[in-house]
Amino acid sequence: xxxxxxxxxxxxxxxxxxxxxxxxxxxxxxxxxxxxxxxxxxxxxxxxxxxxxxxxxxxxxxxxxxxxxxxxxxxxxxxxxxxxxxxxxxxxxxxxxxxxxxxxxxxxxxxxxxxx
Length: 116
What we know:
Layout: E1 6-10, E2 13-16, E3 19-21, E4 25-28, E5 31-33, H1 50-54, E6 59-64, H2 74-82, E7 86-90, H3 92-103, E8 108-113
Parallel strand pairs: 6-7, 6-8
Antiparallel strand pairs: 1-2, 2-3, 4-5, 4-8
């Protein structure tokens, strides 16, 4: 099975393997979770990436929104690093590019905030 491919991203919408998503997503190597919900909308708590921690990828790419406003607190970064996961957090458009570049060589998960 091929890893999911991001066809396009624009504020509020992402198209993955031809399917549009209007809510935040997590892209796993074998599937897409189309309704990623966080305890606090503009911050990523360790509980928000609990499922990622269950089968740790090498890298978690976090799309922080169009303007990069979603925060990834130190507590979350530390918990991910303790699990052996490299964390890359950047604005979502750049995160989409990073995801594609890295998933060719490494096991990558992308958690993407689609708005702000």
